[in-house]
Here is the input.
Amino acid sequence: MSGYETLQMYIDGVWCDGSDGEYGEVINPATEEALARLPHAGTADLDRALQAAAKGFEVWRRTSPAERGKIMRKAADLMRERLESIARTLTLEEGKTIGESRAEVATSADIIDWYGQEGQRTYGRVIPPRSGDVRQIVVREPIGPVAAFTPWNFPGVTPARKIGGALGAGCSIIIKASEETPGTCVAMVRALADAGLPAGVCNLVFGVPAKISEYLIPSPIIRKVSFTGSIPVGKHLAQLAAQGMKPATMELGGHSPVIVFDDVDVEKVAQITVAGKYRNAGQVCISPTRFFVHDAVYDKFVSTFSELAKALPVGNGLDEANRMGSLANDRRMSAMDEFIGDAVDKGAKLLAGGERIGNQGFFYQPTVLGDVPDDARIMNEEPFGPVAPMQRWTTVDEMVKKANGLPYGLAAYAFTKSNQRAAEIADALESGMVGVNHLAISLPETPFGGVKESGYGKEGGVEGLDSYMISKFVTTTNA
Here is the structure.
């Protein structure tokens, strides 16, 4: 399709197809038409990628942090120059609005840029000795070649975090991006190659996910694993990594509670949360997904939220007028029907949406469910779609217990005008990230990650860079 990225793998500095001649098909979720064929890696391709990563690591670890930073900044600048074409690719393959795609590409470039700069500040330290003839230092070193796996919902930002962190630390990487949304990562890797990244430092492969992960992770060449995706798959990959005593970063699912206190500006909070809820059609791991609204403002808040949801223009993401695009695949369509049907059967009120839009493309109405019971599936399982379930609360203890009652802990949000309440609820929520009075919890310089079954380890910030490094203690004394 005109305007879509040319799809190939990138191994040892060469763009290539798979040696086995196997391909998959990439679908435009707004039209259900085929965009392109995607080459899949065979075993021989993965072996080449592993050897390339080993060789690339030896080159990149010996490249000065300043020079690494220059290459990464140049790549980020190339992404900014190519923003419109990459954003179009992103919208074509994932379905989100072109405005969201532009923001994602810009943020992806910022992530690469930030890690290139922060990699120049991987300082060690001197430890005072207990005797005068001893010198004790701690040095920070790159951990080694990385295997990284990314999902379809953010095909720019998620690979950027892993590529940026690895390269900023001095590691090489083999990244397996999503087969459903591959073009954005291809464009990112193309920018890195055009910026002068040495061959083998960043390798991009595609294929059947289980086959790729189960081949790469056990390889003795791989020293670190990073995965973003579902909890069941994350647990499986964590087990594979543990068998080789390899550290892993696991950014898994969430089910973010949103606490609305009785002192808020209802219309303002409704506007903020509607924008956040229906961003990328709700297909966001940190999307606000369980709304706990104080009984005193519940009716007004839910009414305002529902009217705003109904008014959202939904359609092809390439149309600048639309504020919500398609779901990424037909699996999410059937999942929405199941979640909504279950909630209504158990007594929830359907206040907005609840149906597919049209018969071409994966478009779904922004949906609001009121007075959703605790035993509804959507209160216990991550919906990953444009459905907002609402519950009332009257006591803080009751609300906090429900908010913390699931095995997830990725993101949580609260809205209140009281500084004391803000501090208390932030302390009480069991979550890796908490946003109070806004939803902006993901920036290049801030740590991103969860607790409990939402995973472990951080991406972003100095914590994200540290996860690709080891600490080496060196002590010397006079001969």
Q: What stands out?
A: The mean pLDDT is 97. The CA atoms of residues 146 and 224 lie 5 Å apart.
